[in-house]
Amino acid sequence: MLSTGALGRWQWERAAEKEALAAELAARSVQAPLAGAELQAALAPRTAESNPDKFLFHSVKLHGRWLPKYTVYLDNRQMDGHQGFFVITPLQLAGQDTVVLVQRGWAPRNFLERTALPPVLTPEGEVEVNGHLVAETTPIYALGSGQGEQGFLRIRQNLSLDAFRAETSLALAGLVVVQDGAPSEGLLRHWLPPDTGVQKNYGYVFQWFALCGLISGLYVWFQFIRPRRHRA
């Protein structure tokens, strides 16, 4: 009984921590875009000494040129209740070797021809990209390896920064940018807010406290109520 109550309290504390984290991430998203040394630190390759996670969900404004030959289409992604692709294109920053993976938006898939790529416009020349920082593209259960040409897979289930860096030899930044803004270039950007998993913790709170209440009720029944009924 005591252990179930303690577990319920622990889950309650974890939920409070996650709610505080969600509030902090929301506050970061409305701050001015990172610039200068902070932006360089956020986009530096991840190392044991660096702490890029402190920049997660901060807004950024980047200038550079797209590298469309490395565009990847992440399959089985939903937006507004429809299935399609998250379109990922590397952006080489202006005047730098650094390349940032940008989750540009969502595009519908062709259900009659599953290997067909959606029509997505990729502007040439220097572009401006407004977005926010995330650790990586959101992974899903891998259903297959994808479809590609000449060994480079265009359609994939997931995309790992480290694996993509090794595959392409690009000088990838340590974080990914999710592009914000109105629909454009054949892409939608109705992104959901970050899921900290707080609802799962509240579910566990209910589970452990309910179990604690059940054990308490059984204890009272068998130790006090039932013996008195037998003596009556």
TrEMBL record:
Q: Which domain of life is it from?
A: Bacteria
Q: Does the keyword Cell cycle apply?
A: no
Annotated localization? Cell membrane; Membrane
Keywords for the protein's UniProt record, in alphabetical order: Cell membrane, Membrane, Transmembrane, Transmembrane helix
Q: For this UniProt entry, what's an example GO CC term?
A: plasma membrane
Please state which protein family the record places this protein in.
Belongs to the SURF1 family.
What protein am I looking at? Answer: SURF1-like protein
